[in-house]
Amino acid sequence: MPENLTTLSQSSLQDYQDCPRRFELRYLQRLAYPAIETEPALENEKHQQEGEYFHRLAQQHLIGIPAEQVGRLANTENLQRWWGNFQDFRSLGDFGSLYPEITLSAPLGKFRLVAKYDLIAIEKDRAVIFDWKTYRKRPKNEWIHVRWQTRVYRALLAKAGAHLNSGSPFTPEQIEMVYWFAEFPAEPAKFPYKADQFKRDWDALTKIAEEISHAATSAGSTSLTMNFPKTDEVSKCSYCPYRSYCNRGVRAGDAADAELETEAEELFDVNFEQIGEIGF
């Protein structure tokens, strides 16, 4: 197993599912991005930065900084609109304990599965995962439901969230995930959980971790292209910064469509002794 591949996340798993070759270039070879992901590039970069900044504003407010003080930092048109919509989002008041920007971890085969949550809200024996999205287009619920983020975040909370529930693991039926869209504040996507879904998700996570481990371990004796083949869905390549390595075109995809396919990998500075986890 390569020493630089010790954790898996929803982003890396989504990359592996979408295109094993992209996973290999990004997480094993750790290559710099040779091509822009979207057109127009500067506009999309600004939108991504605003999205990251909005997450920071939400986190600051949730840890107790007054809304008026945080709101002064919303210094662009988009941020002002998103922050105003967020202030109208009152369901957070229904929960007793809020855990913003919390990281959970659990062993998964030879890896650790790690996820950083925008917010986990706990009331009595109920846990709701909130994730803030600044998409320019409201994606269909069916698309969100099958993404690795939805599957990983709920399964990992069931697996590693006991310390948030007085030491007792949450059952899947106690867990719900809610995506809140800053551009579409009245249209959240809600995904409750069930025991059979948890079993299916954890079995799938275990299987894909084994596949990645086997492919990475055997990479030294066989072609990387064989272990990490390029996707057959060429349409995905328009949004991939590594497309020049694969001779899959030079023009980037449209920014509004691309953001659904190119969410950035979480940047983890992980001290496993300080985050919620279960041991090996």
What would your notes on this structure say?
The protein is an alpha/beta fold. It has a single domain, classed as Lambda Exonuclease, Chain A, CATH 3.90.320. The protein is built from 10 helices and 9 strands. The chain has helices at residues 10-18, 20-28, 41-62, 67-71, 77-87, 141-146, 148-160, 195-217, 224-227, 255-258; strands at residues 7-8, 38-39, 97-108, 111-123, 126-133, 175-181, 184-192, 253-254, 276-277. The strands form 2 sheets. Strands 1, 3, 4, 5, 6, 7 and 9 form a 7-stranded mixed sheet that branches. The protein has a two-stranded parallel sheet with strand order 2-8. A hairpin with a 2-residue loop joins strand 3 and strand 4. Helix 1 crosses helix 2, helix 1 (10-18) packs antiparallel against helix 7 and helix 7 (148-160) crosses helix 8 (195-217). The radius of gyration is 19 Å and the shape is globular. The two termini are 17 Å apart. 32% of the residues are buried. Residues 267-280 have low confidence and may be disordered.
List keywords for this structure.
10 helices, two-stranded parallel ribbon, single chain, Lambda Exonuclease, Chain A, about 40% helix, globular, about 280 residues, seven-stranded mixed beta sheet, alpha/beta
Short description:
This protein is of the alpha/beta class and 280 residues long.
Q: What do we call the CATH topology?
A: Lambda Exonuclease, Chain A
Q: How many β strands by DSSP? A: 9
Structural class category: alpha/beta
User: Could you list the spans in which at least 5 consecutive residues all have pLDDT below 50?
Assistant: 267-280
User: How many separate helices?
Assistant: 10
In terms of DSSP E residues, the strand content is 15-25%
Q: Rg, please?
A: 19 Å
Query: What is the average per-residue confidence, as pLDDT, rounded to a whole number?
Result: 85
Q: Globular, elongated, flat, extended or rod-shaped: what is the shape?
A: globular
Order of helices and strands: EHHEHHHEEEHHEEHHEHE
Number of domains: 1
Please give the share of residues in helix: 25-40%
> What is the CATH class designation?
Alpha Beta
CATH architecture classification name: Alpha-Beta Complex
The major pleated sheet works out as: 7 strands, mixed
Oligomer: single chain
**N- to C-terminal distance:** 17 Å
